[in-house]
Fold each of these.
Amino acid sequence: MPGTIIVAGIPGVGKTTVLQELEAVRQEKNVDLKIVNFGDVMNQLFKKQGKGVHRDHMRRQDIALQTRIQQQAARKIARMSGISSLVVDTHMFVRTVDGLWPGTPRRVLEALHPDIIVLIEADPEEVSRRRISDTSRERESSKLEDVRADLEWSRYMASVNAVLEGVPVQIVLNPEGHQKQAAEDILTIVEKMS
Ligand code: AP5
């Protein structure tokens, strides 16, 4: 049965890199799987409503607006599920100007109904280095203590998701130079679910 997998990771952990590998590996192995980026869907919705913003600035918008768009995005993504398994690339939390805000609150979970939560993690020092070296994006603080705190918060939020939905959480590591292995680990999880 096709299922929905929420894949989350803190900024700089290498989520995009691993999911690009996942797309390549799933094509090689001919696995029926669709990957959708929650941020992309939100960004399109911002544009559609005449409030076009850079993806790294969405988290600085008014929280009520972000909440509305987040719910619309969740409903839109939910409509993509069914035929093949669906990987939803997102965040357990977003650092907004109002504080740390859940990426998958109850209403989002109720729309997506995930079968599993996968957290991509990496060594905090590696994440910090990746945040510094990736100049293409406006990243969060690269201080080691902030990266450690983000990794912890991600797990706290994932545990709430797991309890609310009654689903398991798995952690996939993305060590330096091993993004393909991380992608294969996620594909194994997807295949076990189907
Ligand atoms: P989104 O685009 O999903 O998030 P992001 O924080 O920008 O993270 P990325 O997915 O781009 O990837 P990454 O930082 O993990 O790492 P990357 O692969 O680039 O979301 C954008 C926005 O959408 C959010 O800020 C938020 O506003 C909004 N949003 C999303 N979901 C939401 C939700 N549910 N509710 C509300 N808002 C939501 O890699 C970084 C660097 O590391 C690169 O230089 C790469 O080459 C390097 N690297 C990666 N892996 C390795 C490796 N294994 N070895 C060596 N180098 C590596």
Amino acid sequence: MDRILIEGGVPLSGLVEISGAKNAALPIMAASLLSEEPLALDNVPDLADIGSMRRLLQELGVEIRHPPARPRSLVLHCPEVLDTTAPYDIVRKMRASVLVLGPLVARAGTARVSLPGGCAIGPRPIDLHLEGLAKMGAEIRLEGGYVEARAPRGLRGARIRFPQPSVGATENLMMAASLARGETVIEEAAQEPEIVDLAACLAAMGARIEGAGTSTVRIEGVARLHGARHAVLPDRIETGTYVMAAAITGGRLQLRHARLELFGAAAETLAEAGVALAETAEGLEAGRSRDGLTGVDVRTLPFPGFATDLQAQFMALMCIAEGAAMITETIFENRFMHVPELMRMGARITVHGRTALVRGVPALKGAPVMATDLRASVSLVLAALAAEGQTEINRIYHLDRGYERIEQKLAAVGARIERVP
Ligand code: UD1
């Protein structure tokens, strides 16, 4: 298994290209199941999770082409749904596989999707996806670890109110509702930018959607969707990660394609902590606004609140800030697996339930550590970039799920980083 070696202490400087957003590309790829015409996507990141979604869609009958002249583009074409099962082997590797559920039921009238089960960051059920589809007339059965949803005579519009916003459930139901009879209203919908991007793609395919990006989304079903071309929005989590890489090393990075408005409340939190963020003609410039960083309390919340997917990276930053930072995770249980690893590098952190109290130290020290999930892994990369001496990060396959060419991107801006097989 590959490892990453990082020799810390170099202030990063230069230009990083921000890739397309993984979490927008995955649902948008699943949307190709909704039409018999081709969906052309640009700015698709080259990541292990995108590969898993490609394999899954191919099993279901989607033909996928890589136009040779456009390395970041995919053309997905599903003339006919050939299979309606998302097998355990793929779903267990990538939870986002459940995003084929809504499109399959809507187009083919039936779907069988393996239950994702627990994952490293808590139980993560899919009850909201299933309750929504049931309201739209699907019969749901659970059998042998699989969810079976059937709507042989098609789905119908419904009024659905989530008890709390769910990104995946909002996406699944938006896709299903696009081909349902009548109007669907989703209340307490998630408002993440990736949902707005999915809605834009669905609209380009002929769907009638209003309110994406607010808490109430209205979808008027249509009889069929057609082909379209769509460019995936830039990855705000990758952007935030490189912003913090600049700040933690005391360097300065230009982030091409990055967009400030995708940060929501995180922009303000970062500014309070001493991170300078400025819009440029090409994207964003990130560095420190003063000599040192300052401890700032933060709670993760649904968008526009501080993203849970930036929590681990922010904790790494707070490890070397002046004073203390109280970091509360409200979205997922069990999302502090990076804490013991950061402590191996000299961080002072105490966890009480869903809150971690980070007391800043003057410097972190390199150590062998273990990556446990996608965002936890990258927080260790950040800590290592700032640490004295060498850090060895094991189990880095998590990083490859969500960060495109991370060691090349970091090396190009001065990091002493190396992948060893
Ligand atoms: C998506 C993102 C993930 C991000 C998360 C929160 C993708 C592929 N993944 O995950 O990176 O961390 O949003 O921003 O886009 N819940 C239920 N029942 C459900 C669904 C969710 O109880 O049916 C709970 C979850 O356990 C969690 C909360 O709702 O506590 C939010 O989860 P959700 O927004 O659905 O996250 P994902 O779509 O899985």
